[in-house]
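Methods — Computational structure assignment.
A single polypeptide chain was analysed. Its primary sequence is given first, followed by the predicted tertiary structure written as structure tokens.
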Amino acid sequence: MQKSFRKKPLALLLKEVNSEHRLNRILGPVALTSLGVGAIIGTGIFVLIGVAAHDKAGPAVTLSFAVAGLACIFAALCYAEFASMVPVAGSAYTYAYATLGELMAWIIGWDLILEYGVASATVAHGWSKYFQDFIGIFGLGVPALFSNAPFDFDPANGMLSVTGAWFDLPAVMITFAVTIVLVKGIKESANFNAGMVILKVAIVLLVIVLGAMYVKPANWIPYAPFGFSGFSIFGHTVLGESGPGGAPVGVLAGAAMIFFAYIGFDSISTHAEEAKNPQRDIPIALIGSLVVCTILYIAVAAVITGMVPYDKINIDAPVSNAFMQVGIGWAQFVISLGAITGITSVLLVMMLSQPRIFLAMARDGLLPKSFFGAIHEKFRTPWKSTILTGFFVAVLGGMLPLRLLAELVNIGTLFAFVVVCTAVLIMRKTHPDADRPFRAPLVPFVPLAGIFTCLILMFSLPVENWIRLFGWLFIGIVIYFFYGRKHSSLNTYKP
């Protein structure tokens, strides 16, 4: 067991930074910030605002976004410190390896695979629905056999049902298209993403400016119909009220739900190895993208709940439907186009990040190097693992009832944030003199605040999420002890 808790020396991590096998450093602060905005703005604005406002928080969903954003900012400051110290691929996995040991690093890496893989599949599934709604404006449609996953999950009775479809063709097609772009190269991927980010931010600003003209302050009263708390432990409400099925409601419950909207900002740190000046650019991109997106989220939430009473907000398409309810039907086309664009860029960044996690784990010998560590000679991308990621996401997005898995993404990401905040505290003690181009301010307050806020949101999720997380991690631990520990590069490492 002692081998399982050995730590990867900081000197070895820094050596990898200058290795000839590293990825191309071509991303500047604008491109990195664009990747962050691309990963964040999408599902949160175009989908989750409706569910959180209607069922969990009412107009106080603006506070829910602020709480979730605050938790992410604490974590982002810790990510930024690590990324500036060790600008290699791997994100939280690499940071855990240097501070908490090999087993915890494997657990985090396995957890990140779950985060990016299932989140990508969920986003592909959502893209399909918005795409079908969009082409429906022109009287077009996808044949029923190829319009949905073959199975669905009913959370009310916990049973699977047959939909009559074969597979979700649009979800599969967008996944394959994004995979081709990602294999081609990081520069092409970043440029493609930047174009989509410009378009969707413009549409979000249009929603804010145009929608503000139709806001009725009376719709904000009562501001917090479900209360300001909603804290639960393993699904049992401790503070606040309970909604249907005993689930907590309130501002905190809303924050736990819409936390999915912020997932992806940490993907910036997975591209530290491809940043031109990671010590400067990664902190700027992490914090900049979070601040911008939090402001936009709060503004859109305020506008939508001001335009339409919270209990009249459409859950499936809250933004476009709100404009239809106030008589601006033409906005459906523009907003649907923005939703498709926004969700596409989220999918691109999510699928861009997962192969970098595979790459970092393969370099350490915990996964087969010949496959997961393979870098394309021309494109300088981890092409084999990118194709595998595309296949994995296409299968999940096209075949499975993702409502059963999507909530796993929230708890898995929060877990990774807790580990990174903890790792900053440990590294400050074990390597106090290490070069830190960016230092998280107010240590130990910021890391402790990040741990505290993320744990609150984790405990506010239903108990089923914890059971599924432990099940996934158990499978990962089995793989580690049967393969990863035996093939670890540290077995042959000599200082």
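Note: The mean pLDDT is 82.
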